[in-house]
């Protein structure tokens, strides 16, 4: 395992230019002031209600996500390249979804094995033949990126269903501006505050042809027990749209309606934050109490737009991920700007043999896993853990992929004794409608435990404000 990491603040002992002003800022901040500001940030997060839920571990399920006050900084040039690569990837993923739910040309051409698509548990047969407005299936694409060098970025995974965390991107910035206004006066930082307006504009742009000139957009939530409920209500408030649960909506005729105190109101676009299985009990899980009976019939007839489309998850499956660079070439006729992490599929005999022989050097993930669960970090695993995971892979090799242990970049992070490097990743949010939009920034997640590579909040990770310096 490599122990040399790219430090985003220092290059051979010298401060990298993007961090020049921050070095002075952190050096001149007394420990007492830092402690005071950290307490203030935590109080603000708690007062606003920014929590995420963790069930099954005992105690209060609502947790406060750790917030690190030391921002992560990208230059304008670095961001420009990332933006081009993210938009390219979002276009290719949507082209893939449109293709596999219709003619399946990429499968016919032998570029992707049919079993990975049509036998994938995220592939929804009920969506076949449906072409949503503007042929957009994934309207909010969260691309998880890692950095390994000055000009080396890799895509770790794609999130095409309901990527979460954007509320932290916005609130991290709001709290930093409130606590350190002088920092923002002394640095030209591109704004992220436009995201809610861009999201509403994106959703309205894909309203079905049957809708009125001013589309009604709603956010569909599973309810307050969902781990991301704060984000659902937060976005609804900032966008100026209704936050609804399944019981608030019903189907009549060719349309979906919302119950209001003024009577029924037609709904044109549903930004759904519930899983496919629960959207419509007449089409998917019959025991679902979260969805709207008959909604898929309205969707199929063009009476409502569901964002992101049911079945969009087949594009962010970790086995499908391997083929995204090929999608870029096949659909766009371009070379990928952003590269994948080298990946072995345990369902392929040669890959399986390599993974089993090198398990202690690799990161192994469940194809449908998320949140940092169901994975093995070989170099940090005990002999017993390696043996147990090897048994799992042998039982269901098709359920696992493996990747090398990347030398994730580090960012300066406030720790108990001062400032220390900690590993980070980045999730920008790409909005796809009649245009493709991206605010300059994203959610930086940080592994707060020294040496840890796991940044997920459910696994002890925290968040940072992400700066993109203006030109």
Give a structural overview.
This protein is globular. Helix 2 (31-48) packs across helix 6 and helix 3 crosses helix 11 (324-332). The longest helix is centred in the N-terminal third of the chain and has 25 residues, at 76-100. It is built from 13 helices and 25 strands. By secondary structure, it is α+β, with helices and mostly antiparallel strands. The strands form 7 sheets. The protein has a 5-stranded mixed sheet with strand order 5-25-24-21-20. The chain has a 5-stranded mixed sheet with strand order 15-7-6-22-23. Strands 9-8-13-14 form a 4-stranded parallel sheet. Residues 55-60 have low confidence and may be disordered. It has 2 domains: 10-339 and 406-468, no CATH class; 342-404, Dna Ligase, domain 1 (2-Layer Sandwich), CATH 3.30.1490. It comes from Mangrovicoccus algicola. InterPro entries: ATP-dep_Glu-Cys_Ligase-2 (IPR051680), CP_ATPgrasp_2 (IPR025841), UCP005522 (IPR016450). Residues 71-447 form the Circularly permuted ATP-grasp type domain. Pfam families: CP_ATPgrasp_2. This is Circularly permuted type 2 ATP-grasp protein.
Distance between the termini: 37 Å
Unreliable stretches:
55-60
In spatial order, strands of the major sheet run: 5-25-24-21-20
**What general form does the structure show?**
globular
Q: What average pLDDT do the residues reach?
A: 92
Q: Approximately what portion of the residues adopt beta-strand conformation? A: 15-25%
Helix content: 25-40%
Overall structural class, as computed from helix and strand content, comes to: alpha+beta
Query: How many beta-strand elements?
Result: 25
Structure annotation, total helices: 13
Return the domain count.
Answer: 2
Largest sheet: 5 strands, mixed
The radius of gyration over CA amounts to: 23 Å
